[in-house]
Amino acid sequence: MKKSLKHGVATLPTVMVLGVMALVVAVSVTTLSYTELFISQGGSQSSRAHFYAEAGARDALVKIARKKNYTCSAVDCYTIDFSSNGCSSGNDCAKVSVSGGVGTTGDPKVITSKGIMKSSTRTIQVSVVIDSSGLIATSTAQTVWTEI
Hints:
Layout: H1 2-66, E1 78-81, E2 93-100, E3 109-117, E4 120-128, E5 144-147
Antiparallel strand pairs: 1-2, 2-3, 3-4, 4-5
């Protein structure tokens, strides 16, 4: 009878060690999953902020194409909302400014567009030149898109 009691004593610590190891593995997998979730959300927000910045720059290009001497040089002089709350809630918007040339040939205009999506902000700067025919130059040397 004493022999069987000694064998049972070793079973309890073994079960406890296996239980602790299973718990550590479960916590590690859960932590890794949450980390990956936050990383992918950050990437998604950054992509949307870039899209908003690009949309703001394209909107400014349309304004310049319609009115060659268009300027709006104040910092973030106009906004474009991409949701119902938009910039008032600090999300889903583009803040745009246009400075520089007054529409003369070769005089560059600089468009600065900041896209905002929650905690992500991306800024695009576009330098454009009005050519001799009064159109926005399309050569890569005269129209330059840069992310800043």
